[in-house]
Amino acid sequence: RWATELASMDFVLNDGGYPQLYPMLISLGYVASGKISSFQGIGVAIWQYFAFAGIVCSVFLLPKDSKDMAKWSAFGLILGVITYLAFFSLTNQFFIGYVDMPVSMIILMSSLLILKASICLDENDKQNAYKYLILSAFCAGISCQIKQAGLFYIAVYAICLFYLYFKYKISNKILLLCIFIAALFVMPWAIIAMYKKFILDMDATNASYTMSGIYGDKSPLERLMNNIWNPFSLFALAGLFSIISKNVIIGIFGIFGFLYF
């Protein structure tokens, strides 16, 4: 709906508090096709590009130029299989325009990039590490323009970034550049959210609905028990095993992934 409004040159201030980058991308398809009321192909195509990029990064990014290629190849293959299961075999809702999968893939790519940066720093390869950190900052910032979940990831990304900064003494210039890139993407959403909240008195984030309203009268314990055997719940629980990893970045992702669940 928002994509068709944007394609019609209407300024969108939706009541769900969603960022508008993804609807903007889809709106380009409507404009190009000239069928604003019916064209859906670009939405499905964008979905496939996000999925393809996430799986390719999972499989090929970590072992690239790594001294421990076998370990990271195995890790990447397992992650790629889990990604495929999560978004192709275990659900069929993501082909209808929801942004859950695109934001998940962007967050996955940012996570893999900062993980790759940590591997490079472990191997004293700061030149490549800085490259991956900058790319990770771009993906982290973009995630905030796709769905609100990206804002939670930005906090996790900042923790990882400062951990690497203090442990490996990365360049102040690179640290500030990564912060600037991420903030550059966050600010448009934040400005519009504040405008909606304080000037228009509209729901700016949709947080109350996604955290409680969507579940009706169920308590957090009831929600947990009703979904404990859901495959996605098992993924979150399995993620806690990451705390035993020698790579602290993996442990941080496992802990915060479980907290988000």
Major β-sheet annotation: none
Structural class: mainly alpha
Radius of gyration: 19 Å
Annotation, overall tally of beta strands: 0
What pattern of helices and strands is seen along the backbone?
Answer: HHHHHHHHHHHH
Query: Mean of residue pLDDT?
Result: 78
Distance between the termini: 28 Å
- As a percent range, the share of helical residues equals over 70%
Residue ranges: pLDDT <50 for 5 or more in a row?
Answer: none
- In percent, how much strand structure appears in the residues? under 5%
Number of helices: 12
- The coarse silhouette is globular
Question: What does the model show?
Answer:
The protein is an all-alpha fold. It has helices spanning 2-7, 21-33, 41-60, 69-89, 100-122, 126-144, 149-168, 172-199, 207-211, 220-227, 231-238, 248-260. Helix 7 (149-168) runs antiparallel to helix 8. The longest helix has 28 residues, at 172-199. It is globular and about 50 Å long. The model has no long low-confidence stretch (mean pLDDT 78).
